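ugh ok fine here u go
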Amino acid sequence: MLLKRIAVALLVGLPACTQGALPAATPPAATPPALAPHAAAQPAASAAAAPATADAGSPSPPEHSHVCGSAHHRFKNAAKWAKIFDDPSRDEWQKPAAVIQALALSPDARVVDIGAGTGYFTVRLARAVPRGKVVAVDIEPTLLQYIDHRAQKEHLGNVSTALGNAKSPNVKGPIDLALVVDTYHHIEDRPAYFHGVLHELSPHGRVVIVDFRMGKLPVGPPEKYRIPPEQTTREMKQAGYKKCGSYDKLPYQYVLEFGLRCQAG
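structure:
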């Protein structure tokens, strides 16, 4: 489904969960379609995955950077994490340009980035909505300071930051798009968290969740920390949302769109 309205994207930024070994380059995809209206469920997840192997030269907090499933994990050293979050090789599998194109953002979209990390998606969204706003949200003040500096350096005057917490992004609406990238599995009480977000959405506001599939993957957290798409859908419905669409062109991740109401395709 095209996400045509003003988009306030709650970008929950890439957690250190993804610091595992990066995959070999994948062939470029064709022009990505917009998020497809909800039809069939995601393909069944494959069985048992092996944990990703951390690069020898990268930081290696215990349990693949996890207290995972919890928003309480801390990422205090912004410069250190920027080397991981913004590693150019991430583009090969995260495909940020394809994701943003599929969102079909209006140029005046207002975008909120929850758990924005070092701003990997924040700055890209800011360029996609030149007349809009992007609010980068994280629970770590040092990361928000990093994003403030990065936005200033890259001359992105439509980026601001907000300090969230484990229960709320602390951003007032109207929010038109909440984009949650590689972070849904870090949030502890997800139905309660996103029920709160629901009240800040615009009438046609959306939450789009990008997270890792089950099975053996060369990137992402160990399988025991991932949330299968069926569970994500169930939890979002519990929070008061309808499933409105999906996008299946990423090699290791599912993309699901939710809203209070779904627009016609």
